Amino acid sequence: MEAKIRQISQSEGLSPYTVQAEARIVGEDLVVIVSGGGKPHVGAVAIAVPRPSLENPQAVSATASVFALIGHKEDELARSLALKLAAALQRNTVVTAGIHVDNLSPEGIKKIEENCASLLQRLIRELKANHW
Q1: Where do the structural domains in the chain lie, given as residue ranges?
Q2: 1 has pLDDT over 70
Q3: pLDDT, average across residues 11-39
């Protein structure tokens, strides 16, 4: 049987703080590419697997492994997104993250973090609404 691949793309925020996500369902798994700024790249990769929560076995949580390329700081972003997507959608999830904006201020970092949080919620809503 041929596996179905479905894809959606979303973006959030205004330049230079715009972040984009491209999500693909590959078989039963989810792959998400998160990028932003003018230089798309892979800065970190996280793989999350849903599992029963350790605090409440009736709830779904996730566990993750992360690999960050030397000199990149997207590891926490990739991990956080992968954990939340895997738990919410109950799918094995891979997230690659690469966001680069030159001379980013602390306020700019906060804006990108806010845009990523908003983008995450939109992705979860759309993926659930489409029964992915």
Answers
A1: 5-129
A2: no
A3: 94
